[in-house]
Amino acid sequence: MWILSLDRSKENCSDPIGYRITATDSEEPKKREKNLKEMKQAKAWEASNRPFQSMISTFLMLFMSGSGLNIISIIITCMAMWTPVKAFFTVNSVFAPYEGEGVSLLVPKLKYCALNMVVMIAGLYKFSIMGLIPTNAEDWISVVPISHPLEVSTGFYF
């Protein structure tokens, strides 16, 4: 006697030759999308650490240039100030490849800006040490108006 079974479940039939059922599994694209999100998030965190990589060499150059007023120390300090300013204007372009749905870039961007701010503060401190930032009252003496006396008294001593 012949038995005909119309059961089409995956467990009862084998895959055809050259066909993989796992390639068309509905969970596979979700896993790949989740892995892509995790990878983008990890790459965004790596991008937020880039200022830290150059921070050590910048600090070393600021230290080695000395506190005297000469062209080399001024150029190195200006470079230490210009690099973070340029980085502040290019934050969105640095993190543009990692944008996507479900990828939070706020904290990596804030970390990127904070590390650049540390380098900028080091440059400001260096300018202050060199005496190029007016911090004392004596630095502003040229803009203080000279007050002329309203009366003059003279006396004689006999």
From TrEMBL:
Superkingdom in the source lineage: Eukaryota
Q: Which UniProt keywords apply?
A: Endoplasmic reticulum, Membrane, Transmembrane, Transmembrane helix
Spans through the membrane: 59-82, 102-125
Q: Where in the cell is it found?
A: Endoplasmic reticulum membrane
Cellular component GO terms, alphabetical: endoplasmic reticulum membrane
| Topology in the lipid bilayer | Multi-pass membrane protein
Report the family membership: Belongs to the EMC4 family.
This protein is called: ER membrane protein complex subunit 4
